[in-house]
Design a protein that fits this description.
This protein is an alpha/beta fold. The protein has a single domain, classed as 3-Layer(aba) Sandwich (Rossmann fold). It has 10 helices and 10 strands. The strands form 2 sheets. The chain has a 6-stranded mixed β-sheet with strand order 6-7-8-3-9-10, with helices on both faces. Helix 7 links the parallel strand 7 and strand 8. The longest helix is centred in the last third of the chain and has 18 residues. It is globular. The chain starts with a strand and ends with a helix. The chain binds adenosine-5'-triphosphate and magnesium ion (MG). The site of adenosine-5'-triphosphate has 12 residues, from strand 2 and helix 1.
């Protein structure tokens, strides 16, 4: 067993609020990990900490065994970590094609400086087709459904050529058919490209078939881990969700 990503004893406070409390868990190479917890339990905060949006008060983040706790976000992205946002964050004034282009930073800069349409555009086209956005390249975010906005989030994450993607509520607000499509896409990425995922989802029906293992947190603390079927019958987990 090789650990791809490790969260070691991470504490994060916002003023008097302890959002993450000595939290530890890991993601193994080749696995899809579910991250569960009630509202406000710290799921998005640990994603933010893994990406380097802010430093933890204590604890470490390791990627492929290397301590990345103090690295800037762009460096972590370059190493192969990407994420999607719970509330989609498209660039509002540009087409989704250009939004994905921005996620691929350096070729984008070349194009801006030279004004040339490079072979790079073919890469962006392929990513957008891959996530199911064919025929919508020139659309703006306000013209898209929530399902398509979540696809754009995924496209931007995939554009950074990641090894692992942190998915924050990727199924929220989607129809059953859209959930099935995203589920299929994630499975394909895993099988064909060996991508790992950490999946946060309140939709347990969508989460259950996708994950190999689940970690549950409450008040920023680790409370349980195991296969999904075992976790949903765990007394501590039931207590956290239903009080
Ligand atoms: N930037 C911030 N400043 C202050 N408090 C914050 C900040 N980010 C998160 N919090 C607080 O930290 C706690 C954990 O929030 P977080 O968003 O990580 O929870 P979550 O598990 O993602 O919840 P949800 O399921 O509702 O998305 C909450 O009490 C939240 O209000
Ligand atoms: Mg959240």
């Amino acid at each position: 067993m090789t650990k791809l990503l490790e969260v070691q004893g991470v504490t994060k406070k916002f003023g008097g609020l302890v959002a993450l409390n000595d939290l530890s868990f890991y993601v193994e190479e080749g696995e899809v990990l579910g991250l569960m917890g009630p509202n406000g339990s710290g799921k998005t905060t640990i994603f933010n900490t893994i990406m380097g949006d802010f430093p933890p008060d204590s604890g470490r983040i390791l990627f492929k065994g290397e301590d990345i706790t103090k690295l800037p976000t762009y460096h972590r992205v370059r190493m192969g970590i990407a994420r999607t946002y719970q509330v989609p964050r498209p660039l509002k004034e540009v087409t989704i094609f250009d939004d994905v282009r921005v996620s691929t930073v350096s070729p984008s800069i070349i194009r801006c400086l030279t004004g040339k349409v490079t072979a790079h555009d073919a890469v962006i086209k392929k990513i957008l087709e891959d996530v199911g956005l064919s025929g919508r390249f020139s659309m703006y975010p306000h013209e898209l459904t929530m399902g398509d906005l979540r696809r754009v989030e995924l496209a931007k994450a995939l554009a950074t050529n990641p090894r692992i993607v942190l998915l924050d509520e990727i199924f929220a607000g989607l129809t059953v058919a859209e959930i099935e499509e995203i589920d299929k896409l994630l499975r394909r990425k895993r099988e064909q490209e060996g991508l790992d995922f950490v999946v946060v989802s309140h939709d347990l029906k969508a989460l259950a078939p996708l994950v190999d293992r689940v970690v549950v947190i409450d008040f920023g603390q680790f409370i349980a881990e195991g296969p999904f079927d075992q976790i949903v019958n765990d007394e501590k987990v039931k207590e956290a969700y239903f009080g």
